[in-house]
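Justification of computing resources. Each target in the renewal requires a structure prediction run like the one illustrated here; the chain below, 319 residues long, is used simply to show the kind of job we budget for.
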Amino acid sequence: MLIKAVIAQFLIAVILVKVPAGRYVVSKVSDAVTSVINCGQDGLSFVFGSLADSTAAAGSVFAIQVLGNIVFLSALVSFLYYIGILGFVVKWIGKAVGKLMGTSEVESFVAVANMFLGQTDSPILVSKYLGQMTDSEVMVVLVSGMGSMSVSILGGYTALGIPMEYLLIASTLVPVGSIMVAMVALVAAVNKLLGVCGISLQQVFSYVFAPFGFFLGLDPSEILLEGNLLGSKLVLNEFVAFQQLGGMISSMDYRTGMICAISLCGFANFSSLGICVSGIAVLCPEKKSTLARLVFKAMLGGVAVSLIGAMVVGLVTLF
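Resulting structure tokens:
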């Protein structure tokens, strides 16, 4: 199964990154998704006026310009699922993935559903099976949720300056409120303490996570930067990391920008631990202890999913 997964990832990466036809498809899908997201922008402008425009005097307003698009896309995804279109797509892609990987239909269904729904939404689709799932199947549910990103979140990432093409490639390779505020505030407080020593938490992250930048094939000058981004994503969340990356991605070359963006995709961070356990435990209370026991490993697995995807793309783009 592992060999199949590695081969499949390399093939997908080659097709989407190196083959002209694949890049053309990614470009066209990117344009289409961006057009849909722009419809949400029209709604935000109608309700919030100039606050929805990052170029206006008010500047960047995260809660409106970034999170606002997520509300629109979440509603759109829910509508598509309600009328059966999304369910049909997920069902048949899930069957194909299951046959390719040799996984159960439930596991495959959840893994594919996470491409469109959130980490606590997709388990609802298989809630009646959760009680009978083995530990390995529960782990798949958790890791697929941690390592993937839903369609509804793409608008938020692009609003931070991340190219849609990179996000679509990452999504293909990998079938918010009080917690966010608390975590960001906590890091700010830690930075105050570390400031006495002339360092920041981000600088600490740069060195702790720097080896990952090396294994992703980045230039030595970019290794510490990637370590900083990965650390921000893990301890804070991917929005903070993408916000940092969005401010500098235009100055990066194509390969570096893509690797960094893909490595940050997914919900694997400390904030998601409680979200996953509480969100899924509501559906199946008897699995609460299992979820609590596996969720940290699942978070690490989710981080690995994004890093493996970035590593595959890094290798493919070397040639």
